[in-house]
Amino acid sequence: MNNGSSLKYSIIVPVYNEEDNVVPLHKEIVSIMDTLQQPYEILFVDDGSRDRTFERLNVLSPVKIIRFRKNFGQTAALDAGFKHAQGEIFITMDGDGQNDPADIPRLLQKMRDGDYDLVSGWRKNRKDDMSKRFLSRGANFLRKFLVADNISDSGCTLKTYRRECFEDLDLFGEIHRFIPAMLKWKGFTIGEIEVNHRPRTAGQTKYNWKRVVKGLVDMVSVWFWRKYSGRPLHLFGGLGVLSGAAGLLLGVYLAIARLAGIISLQNSIWPLISVFLILAGIQLFISGLLGDIAIKTYFNGKRSNYSIRDIASRGKDVS
């Protein structure tokens, strides 16, 4: 991600069916960014909206609009924003108006004061309904054990990043919640501040049980990546050795016991269990070897799981 632009900031906002929120949000962002007196750009990523979101965005200025052909999800929208942003510092926020643009200067100040690579917002006093807060707290509880990113609210989209954070980072699934964790494992420094969280005033929440399930699955994926990304053979090979050894020991015991007349193996399931454990051990060990080979070529080439319909710009970047 070679940056030849003189832009200081890139504000990246993924949106999906937010026709009533994008115009006032854009106005707030412009008002706040103008006070910083640095060149910036505003990128809205229209994640396949089926309402008039694109039409509302298309009359705004300054703005760059990345428009997906269909709904690919927030992670894909953020990934597209990161790959097309030109600023030195990326600022991300939700498009529903619940993140407050007035917090942006505080996030940037925290980044400067602590020399952080990433500063995450913490919605300490959330304005969501009870069910959403309950699910979020449950996910945060699991995240502390599986992911260990040491921040209070990884689900808060309002964050600031240095550009170099995404030099070699591709996003997939619902993994945007775990960006701080992945960056921490790479050695980037992370700060956190409390931010204002506003109630939704228009549109409908996109948070549902499907996103919860996808998030939990991706959490396990991130845990595995953290523990075994560089050594899958240690996990699968270790399990294979244990399974194979258990099957072999069981087979030897059954053979000795049968020869000694201690037990009868007629109509017994134990010999099948012994063979099953040995075969499962061999399969797991081979899986570990294949995983070890695959992990070395995983990042060869660039790949994206979304399709951009078009990119439109209106007005000049503000300086």
Task: Give the terminus-to-terminus CA distance.
Answer: 22 Å
Give the structural class.
alpha/beta
CATH topology of the largest domain: Spore Coat Polysaccharide Biosynthesis Protein SpsA, Chain A
The number of helical elements comes to 9
Strand order of the largest sheet: 7-5-6-4-1-2-3-8
Residue windows where pLDDT falls under 50 for at least 5 positions: none
Helical fraction equals 40-55%
Q: Major beta sheet, specifics? A: 8 strands, mixed
- What is the alpha-carbon Rg in Å? 25 Å
Overall spatial form? elongated
Assess the beta-strand content as a share of residues.
5-15%
CATH secondary-structure class of the largest domain: Alpha Beta
Number of strands: 8
**Overall mean confidence score, pLDDT:** 84
CATH architecture heading of the largest domain? Alpha-Beta Complex
CATH superfamily of the largest domain: Spore Coat Polysaccharide Biosynthesis Protein SpsA, Chain A
Structure description:
This protein has 319 residues and is α/β, with parallel strands linked by helices. The protein has 9 helices and 8 strands. It has an 8-stranded mixed sheet, with helices on both faces. Helix 5 (130-146) runs parallel beside helix 7 and helix 8 (232-259) packs antiparallel against helix 9 (270-297). It is elongated, with a radius of gyration of 25 Å. The mean pLDDT is 84.
